[in-house]
């Protein structure tokens, strides 16, 4: 029983983790992209469609990543080069993504999906309990952890990450020192788009291998909240994503066990948990302030 | 800051640098006919400038004279429209700051270009083309900074550091690039006199080692003291070159302005002191954010007829003190009294109706709404104080525009057309407006934070004279300022704020710069604790 719960927690947490890590990089560069939900659902529909047409799950994943990047490139063009309002553009991107995906996905409703190949690590996966939980997952679960590790390393141990943080902290100074603020932000936004697309692919190819309209069901927004929740620290995103995954799965199991609690209250648990943890986190204001990208959401227009 | 208290006997700064014959020296940078145009405005008009090796070269001029534009072209942030730059004897195009750094040109910015969320090493690494391993860099920073008498701890987060230390980071960052020319934009505006002396020693050492310094400053005393040569810009053109050691601050100022600057006169020597109008009694306030300063048991009595000045290095609680006095930050009622009435918990409008007036530090965004017309900005601060600006809930535009014209005339606010938006005024003109707006009311109590920050000599003299005149007419004036010249020019009594502690206000005639400097560096704190 516990093993089964843990397995479902992992599948619930993975898409949140991938999307949130991508958005974390975007926000560290000083851009607020509220279009995660839209990019994610486009990844889901395109990933499913391509996998279905070609019969290859991997191709579907690649296509989802490209779709997420295409959406984010549109966002980047609007906010970086036309200096459009980031909040409005992000919201528009979400609405666009949900509408567009519904249209593209119409032909795929009810079509059975194909499973992503599971990646069983030999020997280790034979260990009871630990084996199934840690070493019998699909490739994207491993990828999500690799992604966090790479992002954390790059952000705090490499020059690339230093420049990214510098741009997010004070774009005027970064510009004065000769760094290209727009280029750094453009790359970060593309990375965020790729991650959101990948998270979408996980939903339609691994989590529930089928296309259902509006299937992201607010996960993009939760990913956004997780970034704030983590105070922009990658390792905390893991904690947040799994905590959130656990609470949402718990809700299903609790309903199955027929506790005497209204199901509406149980369904709202993940959101209540988010609010609770956000309150706890913001108690340490100094840490939050130092890690919050000071230029978050501010448009950058170079000097004349 | 704290550590400099012990070092009261700093080595003497070489007061009168020997003037070299410029023609015999090696030319480092030779700018010929540099021109830069922004729209209709000619920011730099055929500027010629020669900087020699080992020379501390002052660049002087009023706000908007084109100093920043010129140095930005040297640092690669702007490209000249016309003219050429010779580096050594080679013609160079400086396309971006990285190219400038490669040539050996470093810059210390006026508004620091530091990243607050990053630590010292990271900040410095960002400016170096090949910073290498962070641990090695940290060691180099420690060595070099100690060697030049500007010690730094590489692991400190910039947000936690006071401004004086932040400037050190900028300078050390320049030094590590092994520069041949360092451009400094108003470096001493944030330093205590002792810290400034330390900076001058560093600059003189650099000059001896052959590095050139291009030094921009509004403080003509220090230009005279440390610079070998001065170039003066007015309206984008070079109007004079001179040897500042042979000039007086007044003669330098008149070269900048192009006319004699009226000296501020304190009027009658012994002002008539009346009853207490503003009293602070044990004012305490917690820091509102992690980067703000807490106020600790501040007491002060401001009496009618006098100007009291509060000196201090930026970020020591001036903003918080101003907010408490003006009512933007609530306090306990008994901590602040206006004309004997407790008002610590009253709002700013209540206090204005008690005949008090307030001018905050930041003129654009705090003192005035950028996108609103001047007349509308007048309504914002004066709607409650009996100018008939608001009747039955309606704003009287006619009354507001009468006031706007009166202030414009009395304070010589220059504008391109009548009643423009606040943001379209230059810094100096807007400052004259925000100060003038309150002075025009003839308030009984005036509290002003940084009355002449970043304002040119002519406008500054006008504002200071107006403050003195207000006090002599029987009002109480409290000035919070970082400019010691200004403070000694206008204050009857001087107090010093340091880390949220205020020293006792002492008669200006008994104060010396050295004493103020020591109080700034933490002396005010210990005095406050004793009291």
Structural description of this entry:
The complex is a heterodimer of chains A (304) and B (531). Chain A has a domain at 13-217. Chain A has helices spanning 2-28, 36-54, 57-81, 86-105, 130-135, 139-157, 159-169, 171-176, 181-207, 219-229, 234-256, 263-267, 269-281, 285-291, and strands spanning 118-120, 136-138. With 304 residues, chain A is mainly alpha-helical. Chain A is globular and about 60 Å long. Chain A has a two-stranded antiparallel sheet with strand order 1-2. Chain B is of the alpha/beta class. Among the domains of chain B are: 2-7 and 54-77 and 94-257, Rossmann fold; 276-355 and 443-530, Rossmann fold (3-Layer(aba) Sandwich), CATH 3.40.50. Helices cover 33% and strands 23% of the residues of chain B. Chain B has 16 helices and 23 strands. In chain B, strands 13, 16, 19, 20, 21, 22 and 23 form a seven-stranded mixed sheet that branches. Chain B has a six-stranded mixed sheet with strand order 6-7-8-3-9-10, sandwiched between helices. The longest helix of chain B is centred in the last third of the chain and has 18 residues, at 513-530. The interface between A and B is medium-sized, with 24 and 26 residues.
Unreliably modeled segments of chain B: 1-10, 16-20
**Proportion of residues in extended strands of chain A:** under 5%
| Greatest interface | A-B, 24 and 26 residues
Shape assignment of chain A: globular
CATH fold description of one domain in chain B: Rossmann fold
Q: Can you give the mean pLDDT of chain B?
A: 86
Rg of chain A (CA only): 19 Å
CATH H-level superfamily title of one domain in chain B: P-loop containing nucleotide triphosphate hydrolases
Helical/strand content category of chain B: alpha/beta
CATH architecture of one domain in chain B: 3-Layer(aba) Sandwich
Largest sheet of chain A: 2 strands, antiparallel
Kindly, what is the distance between the CA atoms of the first and last residues of chain B, rounded to a whole number of angstroms? 22 Å
Q: Helix proportion of residues of chain B, in percent?
A: 25-40%
List unreliable stretches of 5+ residues of chain A.
Answer: none
Distance N terminus to C terminus of chain A? 64 Å
Q: Structural class, from secondary structure content of chain A?
A: mainly alpha
Give me the count of strands of chain B: 23
């Amino acid at each position: 029983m516990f093993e089964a719960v843990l397995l479902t927690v992992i599948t619930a947490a993975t898409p949140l983790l991938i999307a949130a890590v991508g958005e974390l990089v975007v926000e560290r560069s000083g851009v607020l992209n509220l279009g995660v939900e839209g990019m994610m659902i486009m990844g889901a529909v395109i990933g499913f469609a391509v996998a279905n047409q070609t019969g290859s799950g991997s191709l579907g994943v690649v296509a989802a990543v490209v779709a997420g990047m295409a959406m984010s490139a549109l966002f980047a063009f609007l906010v970086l080069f036309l200096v459009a309002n980031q909040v409005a553009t992000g919201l528009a991107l979400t609405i666009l993504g949900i509408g567009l995906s519904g249209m593209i996905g119409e032909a795929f409703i009810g079509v059975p999906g194909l499973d992503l190949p599971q990646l069983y690590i030999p020997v280790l996966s034979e260990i009871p309990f630990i084996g199934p939980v840690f070493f019998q997952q699909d490739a994207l679960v491993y990828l999500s952890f690799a992604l966090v590790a790479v992002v954390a390393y790059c952000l705090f141990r490499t020059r690339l990450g230093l420049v990214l943080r510098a741009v997010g902290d004070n774009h005027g100074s970064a510009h004065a020192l000769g760094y290209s603020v727009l280029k750094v932000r453009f790359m970060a936004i593309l990375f965020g788009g790729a991650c959101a697309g990948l998270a979408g692919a996980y939903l339609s190819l691994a989590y529930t291998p089928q296309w259902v309209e509006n299937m992201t069901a607010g996960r993009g927004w939760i990913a956004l909240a997780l970034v704030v929740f983590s105070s922009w620290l990658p390792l905390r995103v893991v904690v947040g994503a799994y905590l959130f995954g656990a609470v949402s799965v718990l809700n299903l199991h609790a309903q199955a066990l027929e506790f005497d609690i209204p199901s509406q209250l149980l369904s709202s648990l993940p959101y209540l948990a988010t609010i609770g943890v956000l309150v706890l986190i913001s108690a340490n204001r100094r840490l939050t302030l130092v890690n919050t990208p000071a230029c978050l959401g501010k448009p950058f227009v170079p000097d004349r | 800051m704290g550590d400099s208290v012990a070092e009261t006997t700093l080595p003497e700064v070489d007061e009168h640098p020997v003037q070299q014959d410029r023609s015999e020296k090696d030319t480092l940078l030779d700018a010929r006919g540099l021109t830069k145009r922004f729209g209709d405005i000619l920011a730099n008009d055929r500027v010629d400038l020669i900087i020699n090796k080992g020379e501390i070269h002052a660049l002087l001029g009023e706000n908007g004279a084109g100093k920043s534009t010129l140095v930005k072209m040297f640092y690669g942030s702007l490209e000249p429209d016309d003219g050429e730059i010779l580096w050594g004897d080679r013609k160079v195009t400086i396309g971006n700051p990285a190219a400038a750094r490669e040539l050996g040109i470093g810059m210390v910015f006026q508004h620091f270009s530091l990243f607050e969320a990053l630590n010292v090493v990271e900040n410095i690494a960002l400016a170096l083309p090949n910073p290498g391993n962070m641990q090695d860099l940290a060691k180099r920073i420690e060595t070099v900074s100690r060697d030049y008498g500007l010690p730094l701890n590489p692991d400190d987060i910039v947000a936690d550091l006071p401004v004086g230390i932040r400037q050190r980071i900028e300078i050390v960052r320049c030094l590590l690039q092994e520069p041949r020319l360092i451009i400094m934009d108003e470096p001493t505006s944030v330093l205590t006199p002792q810290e400034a002396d330390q900076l001058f020693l560093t600059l003189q050492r650099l000059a001896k080692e052959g590095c050139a310094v291009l030094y921009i400053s509004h403080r003509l005393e220090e230009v005279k003291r440390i610079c070998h040569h001065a170039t003066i810009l007015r309206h984008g053109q070079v109007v004079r070159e001179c040897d500042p050691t042979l000039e007086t601050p007044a003669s330098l100022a008149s070269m900048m302005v192009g006319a004699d600057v009226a000296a501020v006169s304190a009027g009658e020597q012994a002002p008539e002191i009346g009853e207490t109008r503003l009293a602070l009694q044990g004012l305490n306030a917690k820091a509102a954010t992690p980067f703000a300063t807490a106020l600790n048991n501040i007491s002060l009595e401001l009496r009618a007829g006098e100007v009291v000045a509060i000196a201090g290095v930026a970020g020591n609680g001036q903003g918080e003190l101003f907010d408490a006095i003006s009512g933007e930050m609530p306090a306990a009622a008994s901590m602040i009294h206006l004309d004997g009435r407790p008002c610590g918990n009253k709002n700013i409008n209540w206090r204005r109706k008690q005949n008090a007036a307030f001018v905050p530090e930041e003129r654009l965004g705090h003192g005035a709404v950028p996108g609103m017309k001047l007349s509308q900005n007048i309504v914002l601060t004066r709607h409650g104080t009996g100018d008939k600006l608001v009747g039955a809930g309606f704003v009287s535009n006619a009354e507001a525009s009468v006031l706007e014209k009166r202030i414009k005339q009395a304070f010589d606010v220059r504008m391109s057309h009548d009643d423009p938006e606040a943001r379209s005024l230059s810094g100096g003109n807007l400052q004259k407006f925000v100060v003038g707006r309150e002075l025009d009311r003839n308030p009984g109590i005036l509290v002003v934070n940084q009355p002449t920050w970043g304002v040119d000599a002519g406008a500054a003299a006008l504002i200071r004279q107006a403050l003195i005149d207000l006090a002599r007419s029987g009002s109480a004036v409290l000035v919070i300022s970082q400019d010691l010249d200004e403070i000694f020019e206008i204050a009857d009594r001087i107090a010093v704020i340091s880390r949220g502690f205020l020293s006792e206000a002492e008669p200006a005639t008994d104060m010396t710069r050295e004493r103020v400097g020591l109080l700034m560096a933490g002396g005010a704190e210990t005095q406050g604790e004793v009291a």
